[in-house]
Amino acid sequence: MSIKRKRVPWLVLTLVAGVSSAAWPRLAVAQLAPEPGGGAAAKLHPLLLERFTQETEPVKAWVFLADKGVFSQAELDAALAQVAATYDRRAIQRRQMRGLRAARGLPIFDEHDLPVVPEYVDAVVTTGARLHLTSRWLNALSVYVTPDQAEQIAALPFV
To answer: Which of the four, 25, 63, 67, 71, has the lowest number of CB atoms within 10 Å?
Structure first.
């Protein structure tokens, strides 16, 4: 039992960090602040760039987005109210019973519950990247990209 507890945090860290291995060929387009004058290429993770040299096909990569598209407290409140209004009633009851936020006396919904901004997804797909999945919790997209597409995506202002 203790072995599983030790492995879980490592697996979560690996998933979030986008570390690559031979059995798990997934790399991240890191959400790093580019150095002054570094341009969009400074946002590309070095392991992703290395992977591009090894593969001829598009590579699966994570694109981490900078925000959820809400820029004021009023917009955030309205977006969270929309989530609460459309959320399944049984899921709300589960969160109220078992959720950490409810146990701490906090609202049961936060910015992690907001969807990824559809315009951001469209802009990434417009580069020619093939969408694999969208993670609301990570505020990220998993896409198949070529080196040119990765540079175009890294140049987007919300990446």
So the answer is: 71
